[in-house]
Amino acid sequence: MGGAPPPPPRRPRITSPVSGSVYALDPDIPIDRQRMAVIVSGDVAGYRLQLDKAVLGDADAGQQLLPRPGSHILTLVDPGGRMIDRVRFTVR
Fold first, then answer.
1. Which helix (DSSP H) or strand (DSSP E) does residue 49 occupy?
2. Is the predicted pLDDT of residue 43 greater than 80, yes or no?
3. pTM of the predicted structure, to 2 decimals
4. CA 25, CA 13: separation in Å to the nearest integer?
5. CA–CA separation, 66 and 47 (whole Å)
6. Nearest to 66 by CA among 23, 34, 21
7. Three-state SS at 38
8. Model confidence at 34: pLDDT above 80
9. Rounded Cα distance, 50 and 38, in Å
10. Among residues 56, 75, 58, which one has the least CA distance to residue 66?
11. How far is CA 71 from CA 2, 10, 35, 37, in A?
12. Cα R_g (the chain), whole angstroms
């Protein structure tokens, strides 16, 4: 009588920022107060985040972005260096 099998593990993914989104900076707020939270779902222990190919830090550390105007790519990389998820967003 084992009951239901455990649910399959969810593939880790970036849930925020949302791919394809456009974010606007507010000129009335100091730029260092306009950070964007990065949210990832799933078990991301040992995973890293990269912003525009530069290492941002550990995926499970509650990273925040200090956005610059332009198009950006945020990538979730597993411990072996493979890309697991990627989102593209724009800051204006």
1. strand 48-51
2. yes
3. 0.86
4. 25
5. 20
6. 34
7. coil
8. yes
9. 11
10. 56
11. 50, 28, 16, 17
12. 16
